[in-house]
Write a structure and sequence with these properties.
This protein is mainly beta. It is 1% helix and 50% strand. The chain is built from one helix and 56 strands. The strands form 16 sheets. Strands 39, 40, 42, 43, 45, 46 and 47 form a seven-stranded mixed beta sheet that branches. Strands 12-13-21-20-16-18 form a six-stranded mixed beta sheet, with no helix packed on it. Strands 3, 5, 8, 9 and 10 form a five-stranded mixed beta sheet that branches. The protein is elongated. It starts with 14 loop residues before the first strand and ends in a 5-residue tail after the last strand.
Length: 683
């Protein structure tokens, strides 16, 4: 039999299981008291038939290819599923809650991307039981029809940086904070006051327009009456308010909106451009030159309110010492105190200072150079009178009305005093020659150092800061009195020894020789005006003198002292007392035993070597006693026998000699006989 059974299922309890039991009874005729029963059980699964509802609220047309189906019904958590379908099957993808991996289960907020600009219909499907392809229960909602319109795509600035999720903290110059999402940004670094910017947007279709909300910038082709909008894509904007300027009315950025609209359907897209007009820093340098040589100069960057520089790269030459001297709140940078080493060099008074300035907008100045000149070296004019002959008779005169500054005479009134109190100073006197006040320092010894403290007035000029101001400067000058006319008498015994073979030095350093000793006296004092040589005996008695520069004297036996008195052109005198020249009287003679008359300049004559002789005679004979040669000059090598007989060369061999001689202080004559050999090279 058929019957109807109400399970009472709801959409929250969308499935139930019912057990059905079938029983059949039988009673036999033969056994009326016995009853037979047969029974079978069946289980039936009942799924709720859930009605699909399309609760979305979307417009009939949408700009672009994305639709947010955001109002579908809730599906009970009992195994039922719901999903969206489109009638044309042109949807490229579906997603829900950024999860693209679970098919069909999109719940309330599915987002669809259409594969084309067209008209499509969307419905919500609910299934319960079975499988997706073969559900037990299924229902489809009514379809919602939507037309996808072609939407423009824009970019406010091709090639500009992208700021993501941007929050601006200084808007309109009064500190307003706004959130503008993503935006393009660009900065214009301006060298002069010609502040303009050429817009460079992008759109793929439609009509474009620019709009601005702030005063301070103007479109070249703005539309009346407000001129806040231009329909020229690549329009030019102008401003006279720099975003980099301190306290400007525009804040850090000017905000422009680029919009393109599809006139056929009203679809539009917009992008934001944040543009900054920043003045390029001038990098200009201000300075105050030193008042006095060796003092500090002050340098600082020029106040640049339009560029508002925040970073400064200084470079200063010549081993300068730089100190951050003054932190001035009214300037973007500190004032620096700069000093240079005191080179005392007029060619190193000019110093180069270089600066590169930049600001927070990335605008950088070029390298700016200035030259800071130190005041010149100050040298008082003074006249020295040298000390003479190492006496304390020098004098220094200081002219009190002028100083020399690196070659230029400056007529400044100066004050000075001597710092060395050990040297007597005469009172100020009047020099009638030029009416200058003279302070004189007398009785200065040669090579003494006197220190003069000079105080002078420096007039400040325009490049030092305070025009017309006067500053007193002090300097200490070292003044040295030179020695004049000093002479040093020097006897040159080395030269005397080198030029006289009869002289030699003994172990005491005295010159020695044999009488009679002929000596030329030499000195090493070339700048003397006058010389005087004095020879004394061993008792100190003067036995000879001469004013010749290089005199000659023949010494007999004895010990002698030599004095040299040298006088300079200034009259300074110096005397040198030489040790001794010792002259010995011992006589001796050496006779050679061989000679080689071959004209080679060595041993070409048979001649004796003797000292201190007053008589001499030499005779050469052959072996038969015949006299071949005689001579009496023992002092000259060429006076001996040259190995020739009557002009012809004598044969090599043995010859005989007889030498008779008497010493300088001998009473008797000495005779020596012997042989010698004449040797000739073979031809």
């Amino acid at each position: 039999d058929a019957f109807v059974y109400d399970l009472g299922l709801s959409e929250q309890s969308c499935v139930d299981t019912i057990q059905f039991v079938w029983q059949q009874y039988a009673q036999g005729s033969d056994f009326p008291t016995v009853q037979c029963v047969a029974k079978d059980t069946m289980y039936v699964f009942f799924h709720a038939d859930i009605e699909a509802e399309n609760q979305t609220n979307v417009p009939d047309s949408i700009c672009g290819r994305f639709i947010d189906l955001n109002s579908a019904q809730n599906i009970p958590n009992c195994g039922a599923i719901g999903y969206w379908i489109d009638s044309l099957h042109t949807v490229n993808s579906w997603w829900q809650d950024d999860n693209h991996t679970i098919p069909y289960q999109y719940g309330n907020n599915a987002i669809a991307e259409s594969g084309a600009y067209n008209t499509n219909s969307f419905a919500f499907v609910v299934q319960n039981g079975g499988t997706v392809d073969n559900p037990v229960c299924a229902d489809t909602s009514v379809f919602t029809t939507v037309t996808f319109l072609h939407k423009p795509q824009v970019d406010a600035c091709l090639g500009c940086d992208l700021l993501e999720d941007t929050i601006l903290h200084n808007v309109n110059g009064i500190g307003n904070t706004i959130h503008i999402g993503n935006a393009r940004t660009d900065t214009v670094c301006l060298k002069d006051n010609n502040a303009f910017y050429l817009l460079n947007p992008y759109k793929n279709l439609g009509d474009g327009s620019w709009s601005k909300s702030l005063n301070g910038i103007d479109f070249a082709n703005g539309i009346a009456p407000t001129y806040n909008v231009t329909q020229v894509d690549n329009d030019t904007i102008y401003t006279n308010i720099y975003n980099s300027a301190q306290g400007n009315a525009a804040g850090d950025y000017y905000i422009l909106v680029w919009k393109a609209e599809n006139s056929s359907n009203g679809c539009a897209d917009a992008d934001t451009l944040l543009i900054s007009f920043a003045k390029k820093p001038t990098g200009a340098i201000n300075f105050r030159r030193p008042f006095c040589y060796g003092q500090e100069a002050l340098i600082w960057a020029e106040l640049d309110y339009d560029a508002n520089p925040t970073n400064f790269q200084w470079s200063i030459d010549d081993d300068a010492t730089i100190v951050n001297a003054v932190a001035d709140a009214t300037t973007p940078d500190s004032i620096y105190s700069v000093t240079w080493p005191q080179y005392n060099d007029c060619d190193r008074l000019m110093h180069e200072v270089r600066l590169i300035s930049s600001n927070d907008w990335g605008c950088k100045s070029s390298v700016v150079k200035e030259y800071v000149e130190e005041p010149p070296l100050i040298t008082p004019q003074y006249v020295n009178t040298d000390a003479t002959c190492s006496q304390a008779n020098g004098m220094i005169k200081v002219l009190n009305d002028s100083i020399v500054a690196c070659g230029d005479t400056l007529n400044y009134q100066i004050l000075h005093k001597w710092l060395d109190s050990t040297i007597p100073s005469f009172p100020d006197q009047i020099d009638n020659g030029n009416n200058a006040i003279i302070d004189s320092l007398y009785n200065a010894s040669p090579s003494d150092t006197s220190w003069l403290e000079v105080t002078y007035t420096s007039i400040i000029t325009s490049d030092t800061g305070w025009i017309g101001a006067q500053v007193q400067c002090k300097d200490t000058i070292e003044v040295i009195v030179d020695n004049s006319g000093l002479i040093d008498a020097i006897i040159d015994d080395g030269r005397m020894n080198d030029l006289n073979n009869d002289l030699s030095f003994d172990n005491q350093g005295n010159l020695t020789g044999y009488a009679p000793l002929d000596v030329t006296l030499y000195h090493n004092t070339p700048d003397a005006k006058q010389y005087k040589w004095i020879i004394r005996d061993e008792d100190g008695n003067v036995i000879w003198d001469s004013k010749a520069p290089y005199p000659n004297y023949t010494f007999a036996k004895g010990s002698y002292q030599i004095d040299l008195v040298a006088t300079s052109k200034e009259g300074c005198i110096d005397t040198t007392l030489y040790k001794f020249i010792i002259v010995d009287s011992e006589s001796f003679i050496k006779i050679p035993n061989v000679f080689t008359p071959n004209a080679d300049g060595s041993n070409d004559y048979f001649q004796v070597y003797a000292k201190s002789l007053k008589a001499f005679k030499g005779v050469v004979m052959n072996r038969w006693g015949k006299v071949l040669y005689e001579w009496t000059d023992w002092t000259t090598p060429e006076a001996g026998w040259d190995g020739k007989i009557a002009g012809d060369e004598a044969a090599p061999g043995v010859y005989y000699y007889i030498i008779r001689w008497k010493g300088m202080y001998d009473e008797e004559e000495t005779e020596e006989k012997g042989t010698f050999e004449l040797v000739r090279s073979k031809k």
